[in-house]
Amino acid sequence: MVERKEIYCAQLLRHPHRADLFRRHRPLSPVVIKCEYYFSERIWPLFLAGGLAFCAASLFAEHLLLSAVLGVVGFTLLWSIHELKQQAKRVEKGWFPKNPKRAPKN
């Protein structure tokens, strides 16, 4: 069993695009895109508060599965802060549309 795990890790190292699959999968991308469009990247404290709340709740959850789900959701919300900043850069590059109703930055 241990040998099989070591072989799998060695295969991931030889094919980094497979290991990159985890980083590229963004479950909250549609939420991040909509939030950046309607509220700009200034909404990041809401993602921070939600992420910290879910991570804290995962520490106090009695059920193991519930604790794991809360932790994953919390980390996903925290990772979305980074994605929100990246989405703002994508909008500046013209890859995504800007919200014409939003006031320009000072």
Provide a descriptive summary of the structure in words:
This protein is mostly helical and 106 residues long. The N and C termini lie far apart (59 Å). The model has no long low-confidence stretch (mean pLDDT 82). It contains 5 helices and no strands. The longest helix is centred in the last third of the chain and has 30 residues, at 64-93. It has a domain at 27-93.
Secondary structure layout:
Layout lengths: L1 H13 L1 H9 L4 H11 L4 H17 L3 H30 L13
Helix pairs in contact: 3-5, 4-5
Task: Please count the beta strands (DSSP E, at least 2 residues each).
Answer: 0
Query: Which structural class matches the secondary elements?
Result: mainly alpha
SSE ordering:
HHHHH
Sum up the overall morphology in one term.
elongated
Task: Describe the structure in brief.
The chain has 106 residues and is mainly alpha-helical.
Task: Give structural attributes.
106 residues; mainly alpha; 0% strand
